[in-house]
Specification:
The protein is of the alpha+beta class. It has three helices and four strands. The radius of gyration is 13 Å and the shape is globular.
Length: 95
């Protein structure tokens, strides 16, 4: 069953974050992930959640998404992300 990684991200250093993006896109693809939505045109319909940018990535399964997140190859890019952006991230099983 597919799984969706949903990231609420506030990029604080766009120049350095570009280095993260360059490294992470091929890794996500390697683990079967594909970008479903990426954008900062967000409208809150209910509640007080107001993310600056949302990224949604579909993986073939929860297990595959977790493999990507914990793989050795993602360790360095993850450090870049943590240094250049504030993130909230969830993984949800879907259809």
């Amino acid at each position: 069953m597919a799984a969706y990684l949903i990231v609420d991200i506030d990029i604080i250093d766009r120049v350095a974050f570009a280095e993260y993006r360059k490294a992470v896109v091929p890794l996500i693809q390697k683990y079967g992930g594909k970008y479903v939505a990426v954008g900062d045109q967000i409208e809150t319909l209910e509640g007080d959640w107001s993310p600056k940018r949302i990224v949604m990535i579909q993986f073939p399964s929860m297990e595959r998404a977790k493999e990507w997140f914990s793989c050795e190859e993602y360790r360095e890019p993850c450090k870049i992300r943590k240094r250049t952006a504030k993130t909230n991230m969830i993984l949800v099983e879907g259809n």
